[in-house]
Each structure stands twice: as C-alpha cells, then as structure tokens.
C-alpha cells in the first residue's frame, strides 16, 4: 500500500485537524503528554520525546512549550533553521505556502517561529537531548544538527550529537546502532 499524504491531509481536514507544519498542530504532541499521565501504570515522571525529520522540529517546539514534564528528547535529521533549508530546497516553498497559515504575508516570522535555533535558550537545560543525523542526508542538511549542537554547547545544555558517515535521511544502514544509542540514552536519562 502506498502512502498518500494528500489523502491523509483531506482526512485530517474532515475531522477538524489542520496540519500547520509546526504551528498549532504542536498542541497535538503536547496533548499526548497529558494523555500519557492518565495511562494506568505509566510513569509520568519519565516522559521522553522522540522525533525524526519533521517530528524533530515538533519535538524542539514541544520542548520549548513544556519545560517541566519532559525528561529527555531525541531528535533525528531535523531542521532547526528553516530559512537556509528553504534556500537549499526551494521546492519546499510551495508546501510551506499550502500548510503554514499566513505564510505569504509573514514568511520571515513564520519561519523564525518554527526555527529552534532562534529560541533554544528557552529550553529546559535539565532535559538532555540526543541528536542523530547522517552526513549524506539530502533531505535535511547535516549542518542543521551541527548548528543545534553548537548552540546547545554555547548554552551549556546537556546533549550528544552523533553524525553517521554515509548516513541517509532515515539512517537506513545504521538502524542497529541508532536503536542501541536510543535505548542507552533513554536508560541513562529516564531513571
């Protein structure tokens, strides 16, 4: 079965959910945290977020908005500065126009709002972050994760950056190591 993103968008609109590429839809991620707190036998004191690509961008935003409930975060192949990525991949501009409300009129402010590099100082310094990226990722340039790591270092925010040589966007040839690192990171930080 092929995944049809247009069909998913239509279904989401029919049930009243609008994908804003990191706008109000981040509230859905934050709501999951509240739902997790209601699950019997779930330890709400040990919540971790794990986002890849677009999910990484939303993980950064959730970290910014919820500074007390999240214990650790993992981001993979994510954009932290939207403007240079749009210059690198101009075909994404059409997508931004179709998904981000008010994009045509407020392009710069909408991009900044979705670019963690502009507000990383607002993140909870006590939440460690694992950043994973492949150096052959054509979808999101590895410099995005390197930029995030550099900024977190400046802020003395606990984090680890792992760049996989030859790694593509999904780190398809490195999945065993990714799983090992993620499990080790969670085990160390969700005590």
Show the helix and strand layout.
Blueprint lengths: L4 H10 L11 H11 L10 E6 L1 H12 L4 E7 L5 H7 L3 H8 L7 H7 L15 E6 L8 H12 L4 E6 L10 H15 L2
Parallel strand pairs: 1-2, 2-3, 3-4
Task: Write up what this structure looks like.
This protein is of the alpha/beta class and 191 residues long. The protein has one domain (5-189): 3-Layer(aba) Sandwich (Rossmann fold). The chain has helices spanning 5-14, 26-36, 54-65, 82-88, 92-99, 107-113, 143-154, 175-189, and strands at residues 47-52, 70-76, 129-134, 159-164. It has a four-stranded parallel beta sheet, sandwiched between helices. Helix 2 packs across helix 3 (54-65). The longest helix has 15 residues, at 175-189. Mean pLDDT is 84; it is low at 1-16.
What descriptors fit this protein?
single chain; four-stranded parallel sheet; 43% helix; Rossmann fold; 4 strands; alpha/beta
What gyration radius follows from the Cα positions, in whole Å? 17 Å
Number of strand elements: 4
* The CATH fourth-level homologous superfamily: Alpha/Beta hydrolase fold, catalytic domain
- Tally of individual helices: 8
Mean pLDDT: 84
Tell me the CATH topology: Rossmann fold
**Helix share, percent:** 40-55%
First and last CA, distance: 40 Å
User: Beta-strand level of the residues, as a percent range?
Assistant: 5-15%
Integer count of domains: 1
Stretches where pLDDT is under 50 for at least 5 consecutive residues are: 1-16
The chain-level structural class is alpha/beta
Categorize the overall geometry: globular
- CATH class wording: Alpha Beta
Per CATH, the architecture is 3-Layer(aba) Sandwich
Report the major sheet.
4 strands, parallel
């Amino acid at each position: 079965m092929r995944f049809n993103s247009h069909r998913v968008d239509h279904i989401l609109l029919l049930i009243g959910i609008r994908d804003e590429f990191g706008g109000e839809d981040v509230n859905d991620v934050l709501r999951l945290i509240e739902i997790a707190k209601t699950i019997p036998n779930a330890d709400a004191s040990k919540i971790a977020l794990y986002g890849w690509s677009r999910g990484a961008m939303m993980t950064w935003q959730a970290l910014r908005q919820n500074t007390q409930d999240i214990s650790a975060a993992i981001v993979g192949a994510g954009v932290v500065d939207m403007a240079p990525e749009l210059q690198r991949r101009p075909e994404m501009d059409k997508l931004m126009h179709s998904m981000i409300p008010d994009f045509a009129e407020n392009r710069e402010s909408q991009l900044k709002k979705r670019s963690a590099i502009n507000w990383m100082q607002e993140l909870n310094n006590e939440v460690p972050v694992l950043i994973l990226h492949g150096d052959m990722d054509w979808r999101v340039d590895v410099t995005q994760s390197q930029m995030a790591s550099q900024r977190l270092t400046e802020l003395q925010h606990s984090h680890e950056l792992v760049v996989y040589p030859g790694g593509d966007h999904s780190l398809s040839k490195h999945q065993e190591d990714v799983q090992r690192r993620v499990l080790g990171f969670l085990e160390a930080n969700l005590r």
